[in-house]
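Quick log. Single chain, no ligands specified.
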Amino acid sequence: MVVPYKEKDSSKREQIAEMFDNVSPKYDFLNHLLSGGIDFWWRKKAISMLRAEKPQLILDIATGTGDLAIEAVKQLIPKKVIGVDISEGMLSFGREKMKKLGLESKIELQMGDSENLQFENNTFDAVIVSFGVRNFENLEKGLTDMCRVTKSGGKCMVMEFSNPKTPVIKQLYNFYNATILPFIGRLVSNDSSAYSYLPESVKAFPEGENFLKVFEKAGFRQTKCIPLTFGVCSIYIGKKP
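-> predicted structure:
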């Protein structure tokens, strides 16, 4: 199992919470910087996949500072988005962001374990998550719980990093992940482990068809994978029967 702090005996869940607490002051800045701003387009594209369903109650898993929840409100105009995360540091910055944008009544951010969701069965019209499922301690358990709280006929959208297959792009991507990303992350966030963990966790993640198998095992059907930006990122869509 890939964890941020290999020298510690704490669980992956505890380490992920600690890591995001550590990087939360610089997270948004680094997120946009390290992706060259393309993360904005990724989120727009991912949320657009749910427009036809017009979900009114949405759960945003591993919401962080709430960027995906904000995009969901902009495009889908739901009654409510509830964002859950295990990092109070990230949620604190997210709540400040909601206040500045006047979205407190639309977006509610709360502490929550993505693998043990404190919601009733069949609660949400849609469940969304961006760059969070690879941090799960148990991927299948987390996805199964996401399916549990989704209404019958509701959709789940997962956006996650993946590994490009085109040789030249793959070489550039691997070089960036191995050298530039950890260097900038360490320089700006002062957490040397956080941005070394990122490429390691991406490599270990069961992307593409392998992820779809776990997705379906968790209970979702009509699943599909949409690669973006030469396969650097992928959107996964599934429907609860």
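The chain has nine helices and seven strands.
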